[in-house]
Specification:
The chain has 288 residues and is of the alpha/beta class. It has 2 domains: 160 residues, 3-Layer(aba) Sandwich (Rossmann fold); 118 residues, N-(1-d-carboxylethyl)-l-norvaline Dehydrogenase, domain 2. The chain contains 14 helices and 9 strands. Helix 4 links the parallel strand 4 and strand 5. Helix 9 packs across helix 13 and helix 10 packs antiparallel against helix 11. The chain binds NADP nicotinamide-adenine-dinucleotide phosphate. NADP nicotinamide-adenine-dinucleotide phosphate binds next to helix 1 and helix 4.
Length: 288
């Protein structure tokens, strides 16, 4: 049976590795802050001292890290994954990163004789816990095929999108849309409440019509109460808006709405909300 490694045990990585263990796989884990390995060790995971040691103990290693800088450090660092990858072994980057970063990791892994797949995910904390993520894979198709059982343990759907970079770009497309939707939702709620409409009633009416969607349904009620527990941290959404804009720059495509929404996320980060859920932009919008 394939031995899996998992580096990066934050909100998403912890839930994903938990589901691998629950499906009966042998899993070796590593996290920069080692206390985040405890719950997984209790489920039977081996705890490694470094990304290098994780990759060396595994046939296929997943990464679920904050941003491109973290992905590069964990891969290329002196105790990084690259030092532990053996010929034929796989490295799967599930972090949301840009295509260029993913390509540089891919090239390095292949140079070591390893196989690389990017597989960012659609879905947040709850889908990660429920094993209901959607994997957007691109890169080595043989690795994609061989990893199907692990994708099934962590997700409800997995797709192969072709060359490295296409999964990363698809993920940015999703998040720039979600980020823009959230900004418009917040402005609508703020305008409605300032007009004297009841917040709960606004949500009920939105949910009955063409604007209805699962994100508004789940996040709307806590937002009205001023509650923003992090499912998807605001700092990560701003990172993704920035990466989508950079992709637009690369391709010469103007992205007016995304650029405006990005400024709102930047303002909320500066106001100290970066570790709250991305719906916390509601606070800065209400204060206008
Ligand atoms: P998170 O809770 O903030 O976890 C981030 C992880 O990255 C932690 O394990 C953290 O380690 C690690 N890390 C950060 N910088 C590092 C470095 N320089 N070296 C080593 N490790 C480092 O984030 P998350 O919500 O799980 O998200 C992880 C990735 O998935 C991000 O790319 C995010 O955009 C994406 N994503 C998130 C969601 C979501 O809803 N949360 C959904 C889809 C995709 P420490 O514990 O030591 O800080």
């Amino acid at each position: 049976m394939t031995r899996y490694g998992f580096v990066g045990l934050g909100i998403m990585g912890n839930a994903m590795a938990t589901n691998l263990l629950k499906a009966g796989f042998q899993v070796t884990v590593w996290n920069r802050n080692p206390s985040r390995c405890d719950s997984l060790a209790a489920l039977g995971a081996q705890v490694a001292e470094s990304p290098r040691e994780t990759a060396a103990a595994s046939d296929v290693t997943f990464a679920m890290l904050s941003d491109p800088a973290a992905s590069l450090e964990v891969c290329f660092g002196s105790e990084g994954v690259l030092r532990g990858i053996r010929p034929g072994c796989g490295y799967i980057e599930s972090s949301t990163i840009d295509a260029a970063t993913s390509r540089s990791i891919s090239e390095a892994v292949k140079k070591q004789g390893g196989r690389y797949l990017e597989a960012p995910v659609s879905g947040s904390k709850k889908p990660a816990e429920d094993g209901a993520l959607i994997f957007l894979a691109a890169g080595d198709e043989s690795l994609y095929q061989e990893t199907a059982a692990a994708f099934d343990a962590m997700g409800k759907k997995h797709l192969f999108l072709g060359e490295v970079g296409q999964g990363a770009r698809m993920k940015l497309v999703i998040n720039m849309i979600l980020g823009g939707m959230m900004a418009t939702f917040c402005e609508g709620l703020a305008l409605g409440e300032k007009s004297g409409l009841d917040g709960g009633l606004i949500l009920e009416i939105l949910d009955a019509g063409a604007a209805a969607n699962p994100m508004f349904r789940v996040k709307g009620a806590p937002m009205l109460k001023g509650e923003f527990p992090a499912s998807f941290p605001l700092k990560h959404m701003q990172k993704d808006m920035h990466l989508a804009l950079a992709c637009g720059d690369e391709l010469g495509l103007p992205l007016h709405c995304t650029a405006t929404a990005n400024e709102i996320y930047k303002q909320a980060r500066a106001a100290g909300s970066e570790d709250e859920d991305f719906s916390a932009i509601f606070q800065v919008i209400k204060q206008r």
